[in-house]
Design a protein that fits this description.
Chain lengths: 253, 253
């Protein structure tokens, strides 16, 4: 059964998340139903490089899909983009990955962006795409605090209580905070993240940005290994899955 | 009756346009209903610097509003942003303009941006915010053609048949076309525009970008003074009203 890699973009607002659930429409369901006619009518199996929660967006999610037929990648892309209408999911590119490749297990890195709209008026054009924090944030203090979280640590304090990973040991490669006009943007990268890790880190850094906690606090929270000590989980709206990286470069069509 | 100037942002997708209409919700209606409690319960009168059509967005629309009471600008901003929920309209700033100032008639310039998503896959994250043109566009040819439309001309060929302006003589100050990755962006500015002028110019320039017409064609269309010779009216989705300019600088709060 040939395996294909899909590079996809979606607006997470109308979905219960990447993964199929009984309580609503998922990105996975939209894709699998759109792909069924390419698979003899049967729902194909898909796996994403990183599962995203309800309301979280993606600019470059990577998905593996196994189809019954050997088809030109362009044809798969066109068919999926036609049949997934009117949902805000688009297949940007399709390729045949190397033998044994897995979207999830072969990924060597994942990158996310988190956008905070930091102005008094609520968002209009960016509704659903940003976390609105009306009080002024000190982005430099947030960046300073973020640097102390880099490296290999037990991220228990930053994982969701529902997180199913066996252990909380992760290596954080990048956690940059910068200001762009009235936005505070967090860019982060790691081999993998725990459930809610990015949103919990952002929620904790915002406490520093608001001046409620010192820049040393997020690291103290980390060292405490106690979820209840961290800041709030930042809302999903501001989060976008940017890309996944693999040892073998994929030749996207 | 004190007059205030509002700087507002909106996502045009759910609206019938700026202006009140019997067939659906307008930005004007949302604002006026939100402002009524600041006006003794009566609907205030508002006028925008530029009326936008259904589906057209604004980053910096300027609106005048006359209210019964003398109120601090910050209070008006906060009240309107609270009461206009959940609609995608936000008041960015409020100020008291100089005596005799009119949002519409005092405006010396208006600027718009038009975004074309120029890639094969349809938009997902930018659905409703771009015109999707899947065939490759030659942005340099479009820019070359655009420069021949600058200056003072009779823009009859580029006005809507429904346009109510007395004459079609307008001075086009800027019409720049550039490529940013897989987007072709048109930036334009003039003292004022005719109804559908920007969308008709973009629709005509796209014919050049697709190679169906030479770069000299949009100017020939202009000189022909015949609406039926121009290209299609580009869809509203890609259009955003950016700002209005006035002789007196407004001191936004």
């Amino acid at each position: 059964m040939p395996r294909y890699a899909l590079l996809i973009e979606y607006d997470g607002s109308p979905f219960v998340g990447w993964q199929r659930q009984v309580n609503g429409l998922s990105v996975q369901q939209v894709l699998e139903e759109a792909a069924a006619p390419l698979n003899g009518g049967a729902l194909p199996e898909t796996t994403a490089s990183g599962r995203t929660d309800a309301g979280v967006h993606a600019e470059g999610q990577v998905v593996q899909i196994d189809l019954a037929a050997d088809l030109p990648p362009e044809r798969i892309r066109e068919a999926l983009n036609t049949r997934s209408r009117p949902y805000p999911v688009a297949v940007l590119s399709v390729t045949r990955p190397p033998e044994g490749w897995s979207a999830r297990f072969s990924a060597l890195g994942r990158a996310y962006r988190y956008r905070v709209l930091n102005r008094r008026p609520r968002p209009a054009l960016d509704m659903g795409r940003v976390w609105h924090v009306p009080q002024p944030l000190d982005a430099a203090a947030m960046h300073e605090a973020a640097q102390m979280l880099l490296g290999r640590h037990d991220f228990t304090s930053y994982r969701a209580s529902s997180c199913q990973a066996k252990d909380a040991l992760r290596t954080l490669d990048r956690l940059d905070v910068s200001r762009l006009g009235n936005e505070v943007v967090v860019q982060t990268a790691a081999r993998s993240f725990l459930h809610h890790q990015v949103r919990n880190m952002v929620g904790t850094l915002v406490e520093v940005g608001l001046g409620r906690k010192p820049a040393s606090w997020p690291r103290q929270v980390l060292d405490g290994r106690d979820r209840s000590r961290a800041g709030q989980t930042a809302p999903p709206d501001g989060l976008t899955f940017l890309r996944a990286e693999y040892a073998d470069r994929l030749d996207w069509c």
